[in-house]
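Q: Structure for this?
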Amino acid sequence: MDNREVLVDIKNLRTFFYTEDGVVPAVDGIDLTIHRGEVLGLVGESGCGKSVTALSILRLIPNPPGKIIGGEIFFHGEDLLKKNEEAMRMIRGDKISMIFQEPMTSLNPVYTIGNQISEAITLHQKIDDAEAKKRTIEMLHLVGIPEPERRFNQYPHEMSGGMRQRVMIAMALSSNPELLISDEATTALDVTIQAQILDLMRGLQKKLGMAILIITHNLAVVAEMAETIAIAYAGKIVESATAKEIFKSPRHPYTYGLLQSIPKFTERKTNEPLPAIEGMVPSPYHMPKGCRFNPRCPFATEKCREEEPEILELTPGHLVRCFHPIES
Amino acid sequence: METRLVEVQKLKKWFPIKGGVFSTTVASVKAVDEVSFFINQGETLSLVGESGSGKTTAGRTMLKLLQPTGGKIIYKGKDITSLTPNQMRPLRRNMQIMFQDPYGSLNPRMPVGDIIQEPLDVHSVGTRKERKQAVATMMETVGLRPEYEKRYPHEFSGGQRQRIGVARALVINPELLVLDEPISALDVSIQSQIINLLQELQQRLNLTYLFIAHDLAVVRHMSDRIAVMYLGKIVETAENDELFDHPLHPYTQALLSAVPVPDPEVKRERIILQGDVPSPVNPPSGCHFRTRCPYAMPICKEQEPLVIEVAPGHTVSCHLLTKK
C-alpha cells in the first residue's frame, strides 16, 4: 500500500558504548524507514539515542568506546554496515550529508568558507577549481547568503550563527545528497533565525527533493517540518506514525505525556500545574527491566516491569511499543 | 491597588570596550539602554528577547549585581541605585537569583546541604541548628530528599540541580526572585516539573518573579505581564493575553509568528524577518529595529520612537502608532 521507494531502512540497530563505568546501550533496537523525498522527524530527550542513530548511519561512531554491535542499515538496498571505510567515504558528504547543532565547531576556523565548501565539492565531483568556485557561489546564493562572492573569502568567525548554519547547509547540499541528516540544526539559534533556517530547509527540500532526517527534542519543530515522526526513549523507538496521527492520537504513554507536558503557546495562562511526566530518564548504566518507560508510566502493570514489549502496528502505519496503548 | 515591589526607570548598562595604547574607552556595548519597567508584588513579569537583547543584563543590573551606568532602581519605594555593597547587603536577603546552567552554577566541591545553607551563613540567620533545619525543610519543599544533603552536585541530574538552585535562592525567604532562563537547559519532560515547582512556590510563598526567557510558550504559561526586548530596549510591554492577542510592535509580531507550534494541522502566516540582530556596539540610529522591520519609514532612521500607552498597561514604542 505504501508504494514510495524506500531510501533508508534501519533494522534493529544496536550501538553500544563500552566505557570504564560499564556498557551504555545508547541505541538498542532502533527501526526506521525513510522514503525517498520524505521528511522524517526523530524526536527524543537527551540520551535517547537519536544522535547516535544518525552517527551510526554515517558510520561515524568513535571506536573505541562505541561499536555498532548489531542490525542492518540499508541504503538503496545495500547494507552500509557491510561496506568498507573507502566505500563509506564515497557516501558520506555525497549521497548522505549531515548538519550539526553547533556550526562554529563544525567549520574549520582557519579556512575561508569558500575554501571549505569547494573542498567538499571537489572531493566528490571531478571538476576543476574554477568550476568548484562557481558551484560554491551558486550554493551560497541558494541558501540565501547575501553577496556570496564577497562571503566566499570570509572566515567563519566573521559570520553570525544563522549565517554559519546557512554555510553548513550549503556545504551539505553541494553534493546534491539523497538524504540530509539535520541533528538539532536549529536548536542553538534564536527563534526568528530558527524560523529563517526552517523556512529555508523546507524550501530547499521542495526544490531539490532530498529526504531529510530531522533529529530534535523540539516537538514543535517536527510538527512544522516532518511528515512522519518517530519518538525515541532510552535507546528504542516507542512510537512512529504520521505527524498528524502522533499529535492527534498519541498511543504510547510517553508520547502522550510529552505532548501534555509542554506549555501551549496558544493557550491562555492558568494557574493549573502542567501534567508533567514524573521521574527522570533512566541512567544508561541501569536500564529498568521490562519496558524502559515503566518506572515513569502511570499505566504500568506487573507485565511491564517484567517483559519488554515489541513494537506493533496498531493501525496501518502507526507503530507502538506498549502493552497498554492509549485508546485512540 | 497592587503594590509595586520594584521599578527601574531609564536603566542603562553600558560595557566599555577598551582599546588603543592607553587602554581608553573607544566604544561601549549598550547592553541595556534606557529601559523602564516595574513589577508588582506577587506577580511574574517576563523579559523576553533573543540573545543579545540585554534581558539578562537588565535582570542583573536590577539586582545591582552589575552597577548601572544610568537610570534609577527603586525597591519598595526606596532608591537603591547608589547604595554601596555594604548598604545593599541587608536588602540582598530579599532579592535572589537563579541561573540557567545547572552545571555551572553550583560549586562542585561543596555538598548540596552546604550550598543551600550558604545564604543563611552569609546573612547570619538563626542558630546553627535552625539553619540545618531550614535547609532540610527547604530541600523537602523543592522535592529533594533531605538525606541527600551530604551529596555533591555531580551526583544529581540537571532537573535536580535546578531544584538545588531554587532551594538555595529561597532558603533565605526572599520577596523577589530573578529567574534567568531556569528551564532552557533541561529536557522537555523535566521542564514541566520545574515550571510546576516554580508556580507552586510562587503561590505558596507569595513570591515576585522576574522571569527571563526566550521560550514564548513557557512565557505564556508563566507570566502575568510581559516586556519584549530588542537590542537593549523594551519595545513593547503588556499583560499576558493582551500581548499575545494584540501584539502591536512589528518585532513582537514577528517574534510571535516565528514560534513553531506543536500541532501539524495549524498553518499560520509567518513573518520571516530578514537578516540578523545588529551589534549593540553600534546599534542603528533612530529605532533599533528599523534595519529588519518590514514597515520601516524614513522617520524611523531619524528619531527614536517614544513609548506610547495604547491601552491601560500596554505600552509600545513604534513610529507606526504615532503616525496617525
